[in-house]
Fold:
Amino acid sequence: FDTKTGSNASQIGLPVGNHVLLGAMIEDDFIVRSYTPVAPVGLSDDKGVLDLIIKIYGAGKKPTHKEPGMLSRYLDQLSVGSHIMAKGPTGQVLYMGNGIINVDGQSTYADHLSGVCGGTGITPVYQLAKAYMKDTAKNPNLKFSVLFSNHSTKDILLRKELDELAAKYPDNFRIWYVVGELEDSERSSWPFSLGRINEQMIATHLFEPGATSLALLCGPPPMIEHACIPALLRQGYDENTIIE
Structure:
């Protein structure tokens, strides 16, 4: 979805790491959800248009507050030129540039970022990764490794863009995919992981904890709470270096 403000503002003004809130009246209830745009990435990339990637649950079905995905279906049924209520920027994470990340008002330098994402949780990590990789021109020590889980290969959002980022910055950015199932025709050629994210995958594909290492988590709560956080803590990460 491409959206722009209803004013004549030439820029959105969304900092890297923040998200926007979209809201709509659905069956007499005001439904609000947060989304992280994949563009723009910082003010230098800001042309006044937000590029949102939103997974549509139950496409074609009437939006109802009794089922999950009601706002995504509402957005899917809007015609070009329609209006949607929005608020922002909001969020606890700000990327200040050159490896400096501000979380709840506290800034820290991190030259090794480990991201664990599930489904649409890739959007904030992708936004940050693009800005982070741009800064490698000034600081080649910046490195970002992402572990990305999905149900199937068809569910992988932004795969082309992530692969392009890895190809453009081979020494600084790496992506490892995990899927829950594969088609028979995919099994012999799939070079990544099959199953669910586990401690071995985290130990193998993410960076070790350190004074300038942070772990960024965004995905389904069961994955984050039961798989990722316990595994990272056992790897030696401190709770203060794990950002949800």
Summary: The mean pLDDT is 90.
